[in-house]
Every structure is written in C-alpha cells, then in structure tokens.
Write a structure and sequence with these properties.
The complex is a heterodimer. By secondary structure, chain A is of the alpha+beta class. Chain A contains 19 helices and ten strands. Chain A has four domains: 210 residues, no CATH class; 105 residues, no CATH class; 30 residues, no CATH class; 83 residues, no CATH class. The chains are: A alpha+beta, B alpha/beta.
Amino acid sequence: MVRNYNLQDLEKWEERIFEKVQEFGLDCYPQEFEICDHIQMLGMMTYHGMPSHYPHWSFGKSFERTKTLYDYGVQGIPYEMVINSNPCIAGLMRDNSLCLQILTMAHVYGHNDFFKNNFTFSHTRADRTIARFKAHADRIRSYIEDPSIGLKAVERILDAAHSLSFQCRRNQAVKARSGEQQLSRALKAAEESGNSEQEIEKISHKFPLEPEENILLFIRDHNARLTEWEKDLLTIVHEEALYFQPQMETKIINEGWACYWHREIMNSLELPTDIHMEFLVRHNQVVRPIPGDINPYNIGLALWDRIEEKELGKARDHAHDRQPANIRELMFEIREVDRDTSFIRRFMDRETMEKLDLFQAEVQQNDWIVSKTANEESWQDVKNLLINSIGLGAIPRISIVDGDCDGARTLKLVHEFDGRELEASYAEKTLEHLYTLWGRKVLLETRMKNSVARYSFDDTGLTMTAEMNEDPARAYFSHW
Amino acid sequence: MGAVFRPYSPSDSLQSDRTSGDRQRHKEKLREVLKGNIADVISEQSIIGRDSDQIIKVPIKGIKEYRFIYGQNQPRVAQGNGGTEEGQVVGKAGQEQGDGGDGKAGNSPGEDYYETDVTLEELIDLMFEDLELPDLESKPLRAIEAEYTHKRSGTKRVGIRAHLDKKRTAKSRLRRKFVQEKIDNARQPLEEIKETGEEENRFPFNQRDFRYHRHKPDIRYESNAVVVCIMDTSGSMNVMKKYLARSFFFLLYQFVRLKYQQTELVFIAHDTIAREVNEDDFFHRGESGGTMISSGYQKALEVINDRYDPTLWNVYAFHCSDGDNFQEDIPRTMEFAKKLSEVCNLFGYGEIKPEGTVAWGTPMLEKFDDFEAENFTTVCITGKADIWPKFKAFLQKERERSTTIHADPESWG
C-alpha cells in the first residue's frame, strides 16, 4: 500500500484527537505511539506488548503461530496493540492507511482511559510496568547465564509455573485475609458451633486454614526445598499473571468502551469524505458479530449503547448527535466500577441479547446444537452461562485445601465443580507440573460424570481413582 | 498535542527480531519432539523411498502448554447471524477454533501442527540416534580385501630396471658431480685451467646413482553390502501388507547403507516361483497365485552365489510374507533358510499380519521360531506403529552379534 501521509500528518491528526479526548473528559495516561512494521508488531504481540520481556520458548511458539496465520491470510494483525502502563504505549503499523491510523489512535485513547480508571487495574502499578518487566527479564536472563543454573533448569521451573500461573485469587480489589485473621475467624466459628477443645486444637495445625487460590505463591512460601532463584521465578510468573488478569476480566467492557469512544471521536473530527467512508467500513468490520463465536467488540459496544439508550430514552444518532453531558458521568462511573461479569449482569437485558443473537449451544452427537436462545424462558440461563464462561470464568477454580496431608506434606487441591468437567489429559499433565514444583505427592479432587475423581501424582507417576457417588447407575449395578 | 511519536526506524527491525532466541529454542524443542515421535514419522508413507537429500516437511504436533482447563464439549454461548433458533446445528464438535483471543490463557486443547524441514539424511540420523547403536566406527565390519595393489613409498638402491626412479637417479648423479668438482678444484688450485675436451667433461652415471622405487603392498579394505529383499507377492499380499513390508525394507536398507561404503539392493518377488525384479515392480505390481517360500530363498541363494560372493559381500537378507505357505514346501523352505543364514550376516523373516486379517495356511512364524541360527530373527508386524519397534528388535540381534564378534577378531571373515 502506498502511504500517502507522513509522520507530520499523524501528529496533526493526533493533536485533533487529543483535543476531543480532553473535550469528552477522558482521563488518560500520557500516550506514546510507536511506528512499527508488521514483524515488529508480531514481536510486540508475542510479548504482550512489553518492550522487554523474559525469554521462554513458548513465546517463540506463539510468534510462529501468529506469523503462520498471518502469512496464510487466516488472521490479520490487529490494528492496535496497547499496553497498560504509564506512559501508555501503543503500536501503529506503518503499512496501515491514514484512516486506520486515526481510528487506532482514537481507539487507543479509549483503552488508555480505561486502564487508568477501571478498578481492576488499580493494583497493576502502571507507572512501574515497563521497568518491572525489564527487571524480570534481566533477572531471568542472569539465571539462564549462571553456569550453576542454566537454561534447562530455568525452563523446567518456568514451564511448570506457566501451567499454574492463572490459578490465583480472582478479585484483587478484595483484600486477602491475613493468617491471623484466618485463624481468629476459624476459632470463632469453632467456638460458636461448640466444638471440643481437641478440635479447636486441630485448627491451629491446619494449613492453609482457608482454601488458598494462589497456588504458585503457596508453593513458593511453603516448599522449603526451593532455592532462592526458583522462588524468584515463581514470584515473577505470578506477578505477570496478576498483571494480565484484569485484561482478561475486562475484555468486553474495555473493548466496548474503546469502540464507543473511537466512534465518538471519529464522528466529531469532521473527517474528509474518503477517510470517513473508510472509517465506516473498518468500524463495521471490527464491531460485527462473529457467528459461532463471541466478539467482545460487538457485545461491549452494544452494551454501552444500551446503557446510553436507556438513559436517554431513545437511541442516539451517533453520526450526528454528540454524547449529552448528562449521561457522561454515569458512563464514567460504570467504566470505573465494573468488569465483564458485573457489566453483563447489570446491563445485559433480553432485548440486547436478542439483538446480539446470543444463544447457548451444546454438543449432541458431534454437532453443536443450539439448545437455548434469548427467548422469554431461557434468556437468563444463556446470560448466566455467558457470565460464567468469559474471562476468568474459563479458568477452573482450584484451590489448595491442605498442604500437609497424612503428615507427609502431600499437597491437596480441590476443584470447585460448577457443572463443567476438567479436561482430563490437561489436568494430568498440569498435575505433573505441580509435582515438579511441590516436590512431593500432589492430589487433585474433582468431579467427573457424577462421581468424585481423584488424581494423584508422585514419584511413581499418575494414579486416578473415581468414586461412584449418588450415581443413578449405582442402583442399577446393585442388584448384580 | 498529547502523545509522543516514536518514528519507525528500520534499525529497529533488527532489534525487533527479539523473538529469534525464543523461536530457536522452540525449534529445538520441536526437534526433540520429532526424535520422540520418530516411529510415527517413519510410518508415514511419504517418507519411504525418497532420495536422501530431499527435504521432507514433517508435521509435528505442537508442544502443548498444559493448564487446568475445562473439557471441550461444555455448553457454551456464541453469537449467531440473527434469528438463530433452537435445535439449529451451528458447527461440528471437535474442531475447535484456536485459542481464545490473545492466546494468553490458551485454553482450547486444539491441535497445532508445526512443520519442520528435515532432509531424509537428518531424519535417518535421528532414527539411528534413537536406536542407540554402539559407535558405528568402532564396530567391526566384515571388511573385504577389495584390492591388492602396491603403493610407492620412498626409494631403494637396488631394484629392477622397470622401477627405476629417473628423477632421483639424475639428482643423485648431479650431487655426486658437484661434490667431485669441488674436490678437483681443491686439489688443483689455480692450476692450469686446461682446455678440456668434451670427453673429459663426461660424468657418467654410476651404479651408486641409481635409485629405485620402493613398493609397499597396499591392501584396500572395502565394505560392500547387499540387501536382499525377498517378498511374498502371492494373492494374499494386499497393498497394506506390501506397504508394511516396504517400510521395513526401507529401514533395513538405510541402516545397512550407513554402515557400508557401497550397498546394493536385490529384489526378489515370489509366489510359487521366484523372479528377480526391479524396485518398482517389486512394490507395485500386483501378483497372484499361491506361495512357495522356498522358491524365493532358492532364488536368493542363486543371486548371492552368482553375483555376491559371501566372502566379498556382506549379505543382509530379509523376507516378508504373510506366512501362508504350502505345507509340502516347508521342509524345503527350512533347508534353504539354513543355507541362507549361513551366507548372510543377518537374515530375517518378517510376518505381516495387519490386525483383523485372518491367518490361514501355515503359520511360518512358529516353524521359524524353532529354527536355530544365531543370525536369524523373526519379527511379526501387525501395523504401522509396529515397524520401528520391531526394526529395533531386529537389529538387537545384529548388535549382540557384533559385540561377540568383537571379542573374537579371528572370525571377521
């Protein structure tokens, strides 16, 4: 594509966009744009946009994968790559048209505002993001270069840690109870229920007192055999997971917000006709539904529009009417206090679901069959399933309930079963990773086909036991 | 203006290849996977019978990054094009579309395939690495005195005229002449510089000048091998069976080729009578009729005796059959098998019984199991996946043998 613009043009447009950003009251970190080519863009995507990141083969895999998809035209490169940091850094691909650059810049400001203001990001310490990732990279490189450690050993821990990285506490905004608080809570509960002295005595030996979701941190703090560098690797992987967690939690609301604002900004810029026409095409490509999947841009924007519509009493003509100031405050508040689950729970109504044509599908004999649509009876079910399956909902809740089973330091984990079974082959391999880190026997309890399934992994390998439990099949077998 | 622009710098594109280290490591890991799955790769049809410098694209299952995830077939929410109704089929199960979004929580267990380019040569190296063969260099091969010639090595003062080293002889004469002149000059300093005639200047060759080539006997050892592929092409050998046989022959050929400087292939197809055929016919021409294994062995013996004298050649013979043979033919078969095992380094019988096929006729495998020869092995191949492990087992014999031979150098043949 022949580029008919230069850096000055971009700067000029950015200036106008920024005027609008300020006019609309978006509250952003300082913004930086990096002009890059597509290989650089792929590189940025590989490392989640981080200018510096520790090395691991999985990034090589991810790069190859994205590049192959791109080379074969299966998947384009997204227009935007923006990271939650202060200053906020975004990439602009130099081969994109001027219209796309303007659109991307406007979109990026939407994300920038969201990163800065949404509560889920408040713990990510955006000022230090770049430096922190750089420090992580430097430390891990130094371990790899250390002849007494080396690549293989580092990889062994990283492979295992990656497999468990997202097994951590869900809501970072809720403060975790300290050990003492847990203890006093447990004692209080025991006294109230009138337990015997002995049982109360037992409580103090129990560890962890309350189920622990931060698996990596628990291992770091309670496996005495880990060396300092191994503990450091666990900390690094955990911190990175925490950094990315809010982005998983706010995919829909965040993309919707950015789309809402790029549309608002683009429509107020008085674009030349050719650019405006291209904008309409691109915008619709981005926010159209993807049949058979969920397009967060589509759903997010639809919800924001719905909020606006309800507030105004009618749908606004976005091309011509600007956002009335009276609803701005409400929307800004929502972008601060909601994440995908609460956002959908609060604002997804039946009309919107119908408009989005959301449905629930189930597998029946090798086919995905629509089992529920957004009709009067079942739209709530579809909505609940949506809420439960997006973002962190796609990650099974597994917590450590006992760090010292049988007095042999066996680690016991329980999967909080919500109707969805674990993928067995993956669970087995992940358990092996867990064993690598814990160094002693590990147990996982979950449910499978109405029975309790227990996996254990120790130096002899994997064993699995299933226990029939209130299974209708039991009655059938019993008269044998 | 609110933002800082970092202009594009082409030098950045060098820097941007910061993925290269991780990509390299990923490739290495894929290669390890390839090594682990060598049996699968080998059983892929496309590899058998290729030129060794050809590049093969081997699809390798991606290295999975395991996490705790939910199973694939859970109910899920998706969007439609509008007007989706209950009961509508919206897709095939089991074909998941990649990872969800940014791949951070890569959570669908779909298969990724990565292609790696390897040449057949490399692949074979990997294969034999997998075999964990003892160091091939130090392994005693049945080396054959291929040439007895002589090699010049220095000179000597006596010899026959034909070996005269003219250059050296002339040189030594010049040297002698030079010395002689010096002595003469010393004896008659400034004395009359006589006018000397041609006659007096003559300085003839002396016996002491003569130098002859010295010769050392030069024996060159050559290791030649022939792989005799014998296959039953009777009516009961279908395409699948032939394919399995072919894979096995291919491996054997590659293995033998690694060890010897020159390796030849002989193809003998037999039903009730045996013919020597070319490779193409061997594998592709459909045959029919009954089976007389002895005919194949007899033919093999003939070919070996005609062209591949066992004292000069390392003979590897392998016979693939589905094991049905005429009852009356068995004594003769055993007789020829004995003879064959005497002339071969290694002789094997592979019975191909794809699962689900009905074995009828005489199970030769049992007969052969009673057959005692230290260089004879039987294998039973039931499917693609069997080929590599069975081949390994087959070579086990060779390995054992070579170690015993090593202990007894006299028997090198």
